[in-house]
Write a structure and sequence with these properties.
57% helix, two-stranded antiparallel ribbon, 327 residues, 13 helices, three-stranded antiparallel sheet
């Protein structure tokens, strides 16, 4: 049966398409993260003290200086042109995107956040919670926890934890040596020690602290948040507080009893709060998506309560939030 042609239905369709695109970018970047060392797209070989970028040896001129092939001035120029300037440009672009659109990298690309969302879904199947630290289960009236999913959740945490450790090691040592050593049991003691210790740490982090790491422990996320908070015109989730009473009838398939935006947030935030309290928002848009789905079935409402705003509209929302917070 076709959806009714309302503002809510149109918004719901748009956000479903946006979520599909986000999933595609996450999957693509996750695959790239795993394959980049093997393809020499990006890694630093400790054995050769050699940086590889896009399949090419990326020399900073230091080795040539040690061999006496270039002068100190030539080596300094090479270091600036091939090392410092590209790093500054990359950091500038990265922070520029964050200044305008917030933690877009986290919500749309970051491999760790992809795991956060996937493990949230598995844990929810097992016990009805999206995090072990949630106080109450979040289940539909016709839904029940399925304990048989616990082994799947635990195995995925351990499997991805050790895959993370192995992948990070291949960014520092030849991937063929690491994977070959695993297959043939010829890893060195230090390599084995690193994989075991790092794998256990990552497993525990994915089990118990994946949201806490994203919110408080990730330097990449922190700098994005700081840049985003510094720009009052940045992309922000706006909440129509003058229509807050409409949220009483909020109902979606995932949250038939209301507060759908709170229930689906992968970072366990409350999207209707002010920007300062949404410091670690990753702009995944799942709260906006659920709000649009709720409005879809309520033809009397003109448009969703939550929506992304940027530029002048974003600044108006930020200022309005600040004024309301003071009062």
């Amino acid at each position: 049966m076709p959806e009714p042609d309302t503002a809510g239905a149109a918004a719901a369709r748009h956000h479903r398409q946006l979520q599909r695109r986000r999933r595609a970018t996450q999957f693509g970047f996750f695959t790239l993260f795993l394959l980049a060392p093997a393809l020499n797209l990006l890694r630093f070989d400790l054995n050769e003290t050699q940086l590889w970028v896009l399949g090419m040896r990326w020399s900073l001129g230091i080795t040539a200086l040690q061999r006496g092939e270039v002068t100190a001035n030539q080596a300094a120029i090479t270091l600036i042109l091939r090392g410092i300037l590209p790093a500054l440009a990359l950091a500038g672009v990265f922070l520029g995107v964050a200044w305008r659109w917030g933690r877009l990298y986290c919500g749309w690309l970051c491999p760790h956040f992809s795991l956060v969302e996937g493990l949230n879904a598995l844990l929810h199947k097992a016990c009805g919670k999206f995090s072990l630290w949630d106080t109450q289960p979040s289940l539909r009236p016709d839904e029940a926890a399925q304990p048989r999913w616990w082994p799947v959740y635990l195995l995925c945490c351990a499997g991805f934890g050790f895959l993370w450790a192995i992948t990070l090691l291949t960014y520092l040592l030849p991937p063929e040596a690491i994977w070959g050593g695993l297959l043939h049991g010829t890893l060195t003691a230090n390599q084995s020690r690193f994989i075991v210790i790092a794998g256990l740490v990552f497993t525990l982090e994915l089990l118990f602290a994946r949201h806490l790491f994203c919110r408080f422990g990730c330097a990449v996320g922190l700098f994005q948040s700081l840049a985003w908070m510094a720009n009052p015109r940045a992309l922000v989730v706006a909440f129509k507080r003058d229509r807050a009473s409409d949220c009483r009838s909020c109902s979606t398939e995932r949250a038939p009893v209301g507060s759908a935006c709170d229930r689906v947030c992968p970072m366990r935030l409350r999207p209707r709060q002010i920007k300062r309290l949404m410091f670690s928002c990753v702009q995944c848009g799942r709260c906006v998506d659920q709000c649009a789905e709720s409005q879809q079935g309520q033809a009397q409402l003109p448009n969703p309560q939550l929506e992304w705003t940027v530029g002048v509209d974003g600044m108006r929302e930020t200022l309005k939030q600040s004024q309301q917070n003071k009062t």
